[in-house]
Amino acid sequence: MSDKISKACVGALAAAVTLSHIGPARFVLPAAAEDSFATILAPADGAKLEAKHTYKVEYEVKAAPKVDHVHLFVDGDEVGMAHRLKGSFKLAALKPGDHKVCVSPVNKNHTPIGAQACITVTVQ
Amino acid sequence: MEAENILYSGVQIAHNFGAAAVTGLPVAALWFKPAAPVLRKMAWLTLLAWLVQALSGVGFGTVSYFQEGELPQIHHLALAALCVKIACAGLAVTLLTFYFMRRITVARGDAVWRSLAVLGVTALTCAAVLRWFS
Description:
The structure holds 2 protein chains of 2 kinds. By secondary structure, chain A is α+β, with helices and mostly antiparallel strands. Chain A has one helix at residues 2-21, and strands at 38-42, 48-49, 55-61, 69-74, 77-82, 86-91, 97-106, 117-123.
């Protein structure tokens, strides 16, 4: 009996590992990687921001069947999420230097849909 | 779009039933205290349910990867919740394996089911955090 359980566990683990290591997505729609449903309205790309001040990142996302909500990233780190197609995120005070701010539309499974919209701001 | 929704739905159905079983079966075992043969069947079902949970959990990522070419964006609290869920599944499968290998005495049976109930409730709680904080 214990052998059967061990085999079942090993089989399940092997299946999980196999599924997670299967090669690149063969079934991805060709247009999915090109489309961007999001736009960052403010601040403008290349804007200079003051350190120790907080700002709002205003965004707009096109209504599309796959889009469920958006994730906000600062320098690759997720700092917020929102379920509105048009809205804003409060951007915490950033350290001086260049920072990349991105808005990524995602589906219900938190998976990015198409290209994310990004801007670079300089904090002084 | 339709195929993607069907795939996500199928995975979600398996995951939901797995979640109900990993929590409900241990609670039922503690509540009704059935005879040993029934308990053993319930233990098998609980093991099956945890395996379904693990595989369907991998399934969410797999569907995203094949449909969108990317894995879900999971960070911070949601990532911690996912790790706790995986740990719960690992612990439950280990515990049940010991149970079936009869390394656990009958006297400690209640402790096993209590532990399984705690693991199930913890995993279910983390599922909500994972859903809404990623």
